[in-house]
Amino acid sequence: MTPRCRPGGTHRRRSFAVGVPVGGAGDRGEGVVGYVILVPVVLFITMLGIQAAVYFHAANIAQHAGTRAVSVASRRGSSPASGVREAASVVAESGSSLVGADVSGGESVSASVTVRVARVVPFFPESVTRRARAPKERFIPEDER
Q: Domains plus CATH for the chain?
């Protein structure tokens, strides 16, 4: 027995389910549904990667500003205010915005610098804080060494 052919000589295979063609009209739109699910997931993962890069860049800027602030404020004859000015200058040069900088002195100088993080994904932190610490420079006469 020869299979019945459709007009034009094409023949459609049938699945085990009665009346459901394989690869035919029952699969229409399946690719679109796959893309509708996959594209937002891929975009979200990409945005997470970008947000992580922006966050760690801001953390590096804050660490650099804190290190420079401590370096300036730990010089002999320097004040904590000069460290705060240096931190603000470093953050401004990098194109970021400073949320706050605190430099305190004594025998050792410590700085805490907070930088705003640009938001790409809504649930990441808005700012990052880094701290640095160094001993205060002091002059010791040669006969006391």
A: 30-139 (3.30.1300.10)
